[in-house]
């Protein structure tokens, strides 16, 4: 076994041992601990756990890769995902924490005085969460297959087992404290290589500043050099901001923002703190911890793209011979995420944007994981990146799976099907459902459906179209009734799923007469991954119209809305006067 492989095994399995130890120490003994960690998590710690829960394989593995190949246009992800936390802190988290329940469907069921609304919310939650968890499972499989050199399937099974141990044993309590450790692992793993590479390229150890600095020994800025290289090869200018139409960019950003604010596994984190004030504070701390990675991502993306081109073509026209390709190139060829085809038979690697391009596949997902190898950093740094990528994927997978299992065991079984279930039975049911959810997630990771295999952005659109509007109307409107809420959620997620499926050809074949002439992105040029904002508008509109046509909200529900919108202590203050 070579030194890098040995070091990777040591670092990765040491991190797994840490997660197992924390899960045993923080194992759940009650439904309150299993669902909401006993509502006793400090806001700073919860902010850190939220950061890990949030920064999935998409954030750790994919985002910098998207920035590397999309350029400035990928800022849509930075704006959308971080903007969602501002919405959470201002519009949702404090009010839902004051309501004081365990899950998002429970809040919807109570506010809309309807088990039907609760069941529809559960269905929306499961659809969005399963779509999201597929990406995490794929990230686990890719990281294992590359760094531990085990088959993708085996890597996925190991990841499933790790999540099963600490999620089933500890529930939200175990997941919370494990995610705190995972945050420390992933942020260290992300920033240390970035510091090394920034120092090497620009002499500045702070990647955020290195991005705007001159290259060492050259009187040229890093971004100017990158622009010159890639435009000479026929690629788009890195500094180009446009990614499709302005309407599409706006829709994409808004879909990611409101989708973030509507994702149940994120909202659940704010049920774990002791008070309304702590919920708002926790959202602020989450933004701080997330910013520690998100402000580094543009530098990682740009520097990785520069290193990639400099390795393959050190000087213009001086192509690298395929037989002399570096070890990192061979490693990633073995995963199938990097592929070369010698089209002209000269044995040289020619990488450009034209039809003669011989780098027939450079998957953007490899950029963060391959970056330390390309930059020839020490083995321990490469091993650390592997552990960080796995921590990001596993932490988010655990949060999503808990959201799925709690919605079934608590919202369906306890609240609807078997209301006389004891706490012990509910806790056992939660663990059984969690196990089943892990098995389903593993199967989807092995056999991902076409509409979800490419990106987790789809999950945000689904949450934006279904859950976010129901929560917003439930908090800020006393008039939206159960009929309106149910109709709105069904209409919002229905129109979004229809748009996605017709685009990817899952529900309807191309030859179907009704859809045969439709082109991708046919509605104002909006990408299916950005369509959630349109679904949200449909949700709001349908809920409003249906409410006008059906009986009004009962007075006790209107009083409930008033109650969780009044700041804590306001009544006591008024009484003093």
Description:
The chain is mainly alpha-helical. The protein has a domain at about 5-305 and about 380-445: Hydantoin permease. The protein is built from 24 helices and four strands. The strands form two sheets. A two-stranded antiparallel sheet has the order 1-3. Strands 2-4 form a two-stranded antiparallel ribbon. Helix 11 crosses helix 20 (about 455-475), helix 17 crosses helix 18 and helix 20 (about 455-475) packs parallel to helix 22. The model is unreliable at about 505-520 and about 570-575 (pLDDT under 50).
SSE blueprint:
Layout: H1 3-25, H2 31-36, H3 43-54, H4 57-70, H5 75-99, H6 104-111, H7 115-147, H8 152-202, H9 207-210, H10 222-232, H11 246-262, H12 264-267, H13 276-294, H14 297-312, E1 320-321, H15 327-333, E2 338-339, E3 348-349, E4 361-362, H16 366-374, H17 379-417, H18 423-446, H19 450-453, H20 457-476, H21 482-504, H22 532-548, H23 555-565, H24 570-576
Antiparallel strand pairs: 1-3, 2-4
């Amino acid at each position: 076994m070579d030194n890098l492989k040995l070091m990777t095994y040591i670092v990765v399995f040491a991190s797994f041992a840490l997660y197992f130890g924390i899960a045993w120490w923080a194992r759940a003994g009650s439904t309150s601990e299993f669902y909401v960690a006993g509502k006793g998590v400090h806001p700073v710690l919860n902010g850190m756990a939220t950061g890990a829960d949030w920064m999935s394989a998409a954030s750790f593995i994919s985002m910098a890769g998207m920035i590397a190949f999309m350029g400035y246009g990928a800022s849509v992800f930075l704006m959308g995902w971080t903007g969602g936390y501002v919405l959470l802190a201002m519009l949702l988290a404090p009010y839902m924490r004051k309501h004081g329940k365990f899950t998002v469907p429970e809040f919807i069921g109570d506010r809309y005085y309807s088990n039907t609304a609760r069941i529809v919310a559960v269905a929306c939650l499961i659809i969005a969460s399963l779509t999201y968890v597929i990406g995490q499972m794929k990230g686990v499989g890719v990281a294992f297959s590359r760094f531990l050199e085990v088959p993708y399937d085996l890597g996925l099974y190991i990841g499933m087992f790790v999540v099963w141990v600490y999620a089933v044993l500890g529930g939200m309590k175990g997941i919370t404290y494990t995610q705190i450790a995972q945050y420390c692992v992933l942020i260290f793993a992300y920033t240390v290589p970035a510091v090394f590479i920034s120092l090497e390229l620009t002499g500045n150890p702070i990647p955020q500043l290195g991005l705007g600095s001159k290259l060492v020994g050259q009187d040229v800025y890093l971004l100017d050099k990158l622009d010159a290289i890639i435009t000479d090869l026929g690629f788009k200018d890195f500094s180009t901001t446009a990614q499709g139409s302005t309407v599409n960019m706006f829709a994409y950003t808004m879909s990611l923002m409101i989708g973030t604010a509507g994702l149940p596994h994120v909202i659940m984190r704010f049920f774990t703190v002791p008070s309304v004030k702590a919920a708002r504070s926790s959202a602020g701390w989450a933004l701080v911890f997330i910013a520690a990675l998100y402000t580094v991502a543009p530098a990682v993306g740009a520097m990785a793209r520069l290193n990639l081109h400099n390795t393959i073509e050190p000087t213009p026209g001086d192509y690298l011979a395929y037989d002399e390709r570096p070890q990192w190139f061979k490693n990633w060829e073995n995963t199938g995420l990097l592929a070369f085809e010698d089209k002209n038979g000269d044995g040289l690697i020619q990488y450009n944007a034209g039809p003669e391009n011989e780098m027939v596949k450079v998957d953007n997902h490899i950029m963060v994981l391959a970056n330390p190898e390309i930059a020839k950093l020490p083995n321990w740094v490469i091993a650390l990146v592997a552990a960080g990528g796995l921590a990001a994927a596993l932490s988010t997978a655990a949060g999503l799976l808990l959201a799925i299992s709690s919605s079934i065991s608590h919202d369906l079984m306890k609240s609807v099907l078997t209301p006389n279930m004891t706490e012990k039975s509910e806790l056992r049911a939660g663990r059984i459902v969690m196990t089943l959810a892990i098995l389903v997630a593993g199967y989807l990771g092995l056999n991902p459906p076409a509409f979800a295999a490419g990106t987790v952005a789809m999950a945000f659109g689904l949450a934006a179209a279904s859950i976010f509007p129901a929560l917003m109307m439930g908090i800020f409107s006393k008039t939206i009734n159960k009929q309106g809420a149910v109709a709105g959620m069904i209409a919002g997620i229905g129109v979004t799923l229809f748009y996605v499926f017709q685009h990817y050809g899952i529900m309807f074949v191309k030859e179907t007469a009704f859809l045969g002439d439709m082109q991708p992105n046919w509605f104002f040029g909006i990408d299916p991954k950005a369509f959630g904002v349109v679904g949200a508008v449909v949700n709001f509109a349908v809920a409003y119209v249906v409410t006008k046509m059906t009986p009004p909200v009962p007075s006790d529900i209107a009083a409930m809305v008033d109650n969780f919108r009044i700041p804590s202590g306001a009544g006591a203050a008024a009484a003093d006067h």
